[in-house]
Design brief:
Shape: globular
Helix content: under 10%
Largest sheet: 7 strands, mixed
Order of helices and strands: EEEEEEEEEEE
Distance between the termini: 40 Å
Radius of gyration: 13 Å
Strand content: over 45%
Length: 123
């Protein structure tokens, strides 16, 4: 079992930045690929970014490429999502997720999920 806790969400003006953190319980964090997803009101949960277990490979949704950066620190059992040049359309609940299946972009591809953290971008 893996328990994930997100932090770092909040209210920010358009053009601003936020850094989300996802801290995992357990000793095997380095075995899991980590992903970030988001869900806006009335919309389906969508992929944002993912990082492989080693941190050597990453993937991004087209909508956030060049603005968001995913990373991880296996010594701290933590994954990060650095968000810059934020837009109102980035407003959503952001979830981190973990998988043993390797880096992927599918909601169904992740076994463990955090509770989410709200990010609101004002115009």
């Amino acid at each position: 079992q893996v328990q994930l806790v997100e932090s770092g969400g909040g209210l920010v003006q358009a053009g601003g930045s936020l850094r989300l953190s996802c801290t995992a319980s357990g000793r095997t964090f380095s075995r899991y690929a980590m992903g970030w997803f988001r869900q806006a009101p009335g919309k389906e949960r969508e992929f944002v970014a993912a990082v492989s277990w080693s941190g050597g490979s990453t993937g991004y949704a087209d909508s956030v490429k060049g603005r968001f950066t995913i990373s991880r620190d296996n010594a701290k059992n933590t994954s990060y999502l650095q968000m810059s040049s934020l837009k109102p359309e980035d407003t959503a609940v952001y979830y981190c997720a973990a998988t043993q299946r390797g880096l992927n972009t599918l909601v169904a591809g992740y076994e463990w999920w955090g509770q989410g953290t709200q990010v609101t971008v004002s115009s």
